[in-house]
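Predict structure. Chain length: 350.
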Amino acid sequence: QEGATGERQSILFGQPCQCFRTLIRAPLFSAGPNLKEWLREQFCDHPLEHCDDTRLHDAAYVGDLQTLRNLLQEESYRSRINEKSVWCCGWLPCTPLRIAATAGHGNCVDFLIRKGAEVDLVDVKGQTALYVAVVNGHLESTEILLEAGADPNGSRHHRSTPVYHASRVGRDDILKALIRYGADVDVNHHLTPDTRPPFSRRLTSLVVCPLYISAAYHNLQCFRLLLQAGANPDFNCNGPVNTQEFYRGSPGCVMDAVLRHGCEAAFVSLLVEFGANLNLVKWESLGPEARGRRKMDPEALQVFKEARSIPRTLLSLCRVAVRRALGKYRLHLVPSLPLPDPIKKFLLYE
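Prediction complete.
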């Protein structure tokens, strides 16, 4: 992708990276017949003579906690706990923690962290141990990593996030854990926050939004959790939006997507309750059938039309206004406010 300065950047990592440049500049024939040795030379973060000793990584892969205990009694192995071994267990460079998280060995994940494993190291794909734990559906490992301080948003070097994946596959239990530990439920296109001005991209497709993907896969509970946590009900994005660059015929907002994907009426009702702008949906796009893959749900379409024709109640408008004034990062503080419990539950949609 093109950066603000016109420099070609790695799509995989979101910013220029040495390993990407190495791959595209190195002659393919330089690897010769021994690809494994070439990968070790290019990407290994430890001396080549240590590469063949993968006992630490192998133990993490099979969940052999006792072997991990025995090995990590030795200083030579403790110093290599964050080592990225090439082609261990058939994988490209990754740490023992990342391997244990992928396999869902929660006891090994916990032990490695207590022995000094860094929780947010990324593999060559820019994935953290938390991300692969979420992708493989391991709730226990996810909670252990979050408790140990893992970034609930994953890594900015990877294009997907733990929240997005949990929303797509309908793992509301994992999504709850991520939200509880402060995960951002909106898409953030500010990829380099340390620079001034920040390099940012305008949202040009809803496909990258967790709220959209949970609706597309009809995961109602995840959809509800995201909205309760403060997700933007229109575009599910922190940054600027450019609807002019949306693909022709694609949904123009989350409500439009919900209708086109044939979602049930509950999805529409939730968006209405959480203050979605109903005027963003174009009437001409609401024919008997959606342009997408599914027919519109007649009940959902009726709920939308009624909501658009009838003014919202003052009570509903007040709740939306208070929640927006608080901001999504302070919603978790509502239970500590000096207010009656019914009002707290009302503000939290409980």
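Summary: The first helix runs from residue 18 to 25.
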